[in-house]
Amino acid sequence: MTNSEKICNSIASKFFLNDFTFKNLYYLNGKVKQEICDGLIECGDIYLLLQVKERGSASSSCDETKWLEKKVYKDAVSQIKTSIQVIKNNQGLKVLDMYDQEVELNPDHDIIPIIVFLNDDIEGYDMIYTSSTALKINVFSIKDFGEMMDMLKVPIDIIDYLDFRMRLFGDAKRIPKLMCFESEDSVMISIPQDEEGVAKHFYMMNLRQYKDVNVEEFLFILKHHYDRMRDGMFHPQYKEILRVMVKFNRPTIKQFMERWECVTKREIAESPIFDRFLIFDGMGILFGNSKRGTKYDDNEFYLVIMSMFAQKFKLDKVMALVHFPEKFKDYTYLIQTMLYEEPYEYNKELMDKVKETGWWDNAKFNK
Fold first, then answer.
1. 65 and 153 share a domain?
2. C-alpha dist (Å) from residue 175 to 17, 161, 189, 196
3. Do 48 and 142 sit in the same domain of this protein?
4. In this structure, are residues 126 and 173 in contact, taking their beta carbons and an 8 Å threshold?
5. Angstrom distances, CA of residue 108 to CA of 45, 46, 89, 138
6. How far apart are CA 332 and CA 317, in angstroms?
7. Of 148, 172, 196, which marks where a domain is finished?
8. pLDDT average per 10 residues of sequence, the chain (367 residues)
9. Residue 188 lies in a domain
10. In angstroms, how far is CA 174 from the centroid of its own chain?
11. Which helix (H) or strand (E) holds 95?
12. Within-domain flag for 327
């Protein structure tokens, strides 16, 4: 396994992004097969584009400053510029995900470029590199990349951290000597010495207000959902559900878990209850309870509920998470996830059902 594959796999395995981590990263330039980039990962509507450089024996005659300048700031930057142009200018470019499923790249996605270099003899370097065309690139040593990954917990953290890092360093390129963050009730001052210190400051500044959020439980739900979807047990459009869930930020995870805990802790009625919901990124997310073996335990019934919700809020896409209070193997409960996806069109019959039931009239509270 190459170093670029190891780096991509470290992100993919931690954040359940195997379906969105790509290989076979080549395209035809005329009749010549050329590499797109060393690594490419999709997170929502953003691509993380990686270029990896390693100090080899062939360059042993160069001193470290010259190696860094040539291999990282010149060669890797040039390759990244070309990679971005290839993705943006080639409609229908196809690659494979980690399960050998063919995926067409989206030229409209935003691209965050990253350079990771492997050279233990280099300590000081420009953490943000700005090219002659004003393209800003996050640069990491492999050690610093590992420090960042250790601090992050949920998929969107990596996007937020890279943005934070870009704004923090700016034109200074190096770690500031003093970092200050002021909140409503306190002022936090830190003196970071390395990437770990910067990552800890990011955590304190951005994530501590959500420290009580049950992130581990959310990751369990995400993994449970991911594993079951990979097994093909539920809706075949699992990728669309994953695509939305990996974009959840900390405030959304907090709202998600509040609603999920509500439905898992209440007493289960004979008929399903779907009175908790979120609307995130244009998709409705319904939370409900049900019992196995009842007349309501039927996918068609759940699809009607989702279509009613879509009609109420004029949505094209609704996901439902159904909680079943049953033990199964090592699980204390079961989750069933379904997706309803239809272009919104007014339906009087469905709207009459919505008005009749009065469901989701407390939208202001739940939404």
1. yes
2. 30, 14, 14, 11
3. yes
4. yes
5. 8, 9, 10, 21
6. 29
7. 172
8. 79 83 86 90 92 75 85 94 94 89 93 94 87 90 90 87 84 61 60 75 69 75 70 63 84 88 76 85 87 66 90 93 67 72 93 86 54
9. no
10. 27
11. strand 94-97
12. yes
pLDDT at 141: 92
Sign of CA dihedral 256, 249, 226, 367: positive
Q: What is the CA 10 to chain-centroid distance, rounded?
A: 14
> Do 151 and 243 belong to one domain?
no
State the Cα–Cα distance between residues 323 and 266, nearest whole angstrom.
Answer: 11
144 and 83 within one domain: yes
Single out the residue in 139, 156, 172 at which a domain terminates.
172
Same structural domain, 277 and 140: no
pLDDT for res 9: 82
For residue 223, the enclosing domain spans 215-366
For the whole prediction, is pTM greater than 0.70?
Answer: yes
Q: Which residues contact 342 (CB under 8 A, 6 or more apart)?
A: 307, 310, 316
Give the integer Cα–Cα distance in Å for 28 and 282.
36
8-state DSSP, 333:
S
Q: Dihedrals φ, ψ of 224, to 5°?
A: -60, -50
- Residues 129 and 115: beta-carbon distance below 8 Å: yes
Q: Are residues 129 and 227 in the same domain?
A: no
Residue 49 is classified by DSSP as E
Q: Do 226 and 167 belong to one domain?
A: no
Q: Is 28 helix (H, G, I), strand (E, B) or coil?
A: strand
Residue 173 in 3-state DSSP? coil
Q: Where are the alpha helices (DSSP H) in the chain?
A: 3-15, 64-67, 77-89, 142-151, 155-169, 195-202, 215-230, 238-245, 250-265, 299-313, 348-357, 363-366
pLDDT at 366: 43
CA distances from 172 to 15, 129, 147, 179, 191 (A): 31, 10, 21, 13, 16
| pLDDT score of 231 | 64
Give the number of C-alpha atoms closer than 13 A to the C-alpha of residue 163, restricted to the C-beta side: 9
Domain count, the chain: 2
The CATH number of the domain holding residue 80 is 3.40.91
Q: What is the largest CA-CA distance in the chain?
A: 79
